[in-house]
Amino acid sequence: MALVVAQEVPTSSSMAVPHGPAGVGEARHRMREQLRRSGVSDAVVDDAVLILSELLSNACRHGRPLGQHTEIGDGDVRAAWRIDASGGLTVEVTDGGGPTRPVPSTPSVTAHGGRGLNIISALARDWGVRDGAAGEVTVWVVVTEGHRRDDFATRVTGPGFGLADAYDDIGRP
User: Fold this and answer.
1) Within a domain: 172
2) How far apart are CA 123 and CA 146, in angstroms?
3) Residue 28 belongs to domain spanning
4) Closest Cα to residue 91, out of 132, 56, 62, 67?
5) Sheet strands (E) in 7-52
6) Quick count: other Cβ atoms within 10 Å of Cβ 75?
7) With left for phi above 0 and alpha for psi between -120 and 50, is residue 141 left, alpha or beta?
């Protein structure tokens, strides 16, 4: 006779992530495991993990660690996610603030970055920025089933530029 023990799966989670690339993988792994155990669809889990990666990368690139008022030093940022009663998933990353506000940009075709918030805009039902105590900044994103925009590639790369166009000049003199 097998004994089956019901395991309660949390509908929310929060974790401290080192300010820098070291903790991003661990945060993604933990989110993926928890959301799958909670019964969240693979499509929403995949979008949420990508969004978490973008938010953490932006927090480490543009924000300070929590509790620090200088650009130097080790510290953490906070990653959190929760599932609401209607099945919507909210992903949040909080850092210690920075010199600029999070806004989508229009990077050049050859830019190595600057597409993160455009990716988030294409995947999310909604997103925004909330200011907190002591200069903290939280970027929040709501992800729902079937919300990915049909024009995802256009929204990420910009008008008049297809992903295949990026490779047209490779190998040309």
Assistant:
1) no
2) 9
3) 12-166
4) 56
5) 12-18
6) 15
7) beta
Q: What tens digit of pLDDT does each residue of 58-80 get?
A: 998 889 999 765 555 568 999 99
Has residue 3 been placed in a domain? no
Q: What is the pTM of this model?
A: 0.76
Rounded distance between C-alpha atoms, residue 88 and residue 152, angstroms: 20
Q: How far is the C-alpha of 99 from the C-alpha of 7, rounded, in Å?
A: 44
Q: How many domains does the chain have?
A: 1
Cα separation, 75 vs 56, in Å, equals 13
Contact of 24 with 59, CB cutoff 8 Å: no
For residue 92, tell me if it sits in a domain.
Answer: yes
Residue recorded with tokens 């909670």: 38
Residue 20: left (phi > 0), alpha (psi -120 to 50), or beta?
A: left
CATH number at residue 122: 3.30.565.10
Write the CB contacts of 132 (distance below 8 Å, at least 6 apart in sequence): 94, 138
Distance of alpha carbon 125 from alpha carbon 143, whole angstroms: 6
The yes-or-no verdict on residue 28 having pLDDT over 50 is yes
Name the strand (E) or helix (H) holding 110: none
